Amino acid sequence: METLAAARRAKRRKPEAPESAEQEGGVNISPLRAMSESDSNHPGAEGDEPYVQDTPPGAGGEEGDGVDRISSLRDAILCEVISRLPTKDAARTQILATRWRHLWRSAPLNLDGGDLRTMDVVSGILSAHRGSGRRFRFPAQRLQDHPATVDAWLRSPALDNLQEIDCWTRSIWGPQVLQPPLQPVSIFRFSSCLCVATLSRCHLSDDVAQALQFPKLKKLALQWVRISEDSLHSIIAASPVLECLLLSTVFGFHCLRINSASLTSIAVGHADDGYETRVTFLEEFIIEDAPCLKRILYHRPPQTGMPLQVSVISAPNLETLGCLNYSDYCSWLALASMIIEVPLAYRF
């Protein structure tokens, strides 16, 4: 009986924790530190349920140990992170620590010229940058006001291998829009590496546009652009991986036929206040062969006084077809041999 009672007492007694992992001949792989003697008064210390104490922040181990692990990453990784920040935030990384001081000037440049106060700042950044280019954004108005400066920007080695260009504009109608300046030839030195392109308030001449190749271009937006039908067809044909196409107030032709094996989304529109009878705008939009096309969206405000005729001959994966506003004056849609009349009393 005494032996049985002693065995029961030994079973209830808790095993003592080793002073260190090495005493057990093992390796301590737990980030939790051993509890101090004062922790023995916690609730449940003498009970049957085990008690687990949360490690306070900064108590040691893998997390909260005060070590700057981000700065220990390779330069290539840090430069990739910096290149995805807005321009001002990327520039501020130079003051984080000595480790970061040189990174922004060598990271792929993400430069937003519309976010900076003066053109001299843009020129200064481009002249000081030692890395390649990732994204360049600037107002299209600069093409008209300062064409030589824009041309110098685009020729800068800091923009070599540029992946995205965004020449943006606000939808403001004016007589100068009818005679937009020619797009600088220097902008097309990126044609072999561009993945995303927005071109606005410019004229794309036939001799330049029809000689271009865009092997990596996936997204293209043309806004307030004068271009011929042949040139636009040539650009689409020269973009074998083009997925998204936006045509907003594009003029110079009245009919566009789409043949593309890669396009998935197309949007065609016209500015609300940008109609001019002296200019030829798009009136007929025909999808002849687009096996991957899923979405067609169009916008034609009533003040244009003319409908946009949309025809779909072959688009087997088409999921969405419709206008972007309730007051569209589209007169008919054609799907293969079926024509859908759209009375003016009904809106999409």
Automatic annotation (TrEMBL):
Extract the Pfam families matched here.
F-box (PF00646), LRR_At5g56370 (PF24758)
Give the matching InterPro entries.
Answer: F-box-like_dom_sf, F-box_AtFBL13-like, F-box_dom, F-box_dom-containing, LRR_dom_sf, LRR_FXL15/At3g58940/PEG3-like
**Domain F-box/LRR-repeat protein 15/At3g58940/PEG3-like LRR span(s) in chain numbering:** 150-327
Q: Where is this region: Disordered?
A: 1-67
Superkingdom in the source lineage: Eukaryota
Q: Where is the F-box domain?
A: 75-110
Q: What is this protein called?
A: F-box domain-containing protein
Lineage at the top is: Eukaryota, Viridiplantae, Streptophyta, Embryophyta, Tracheophyta
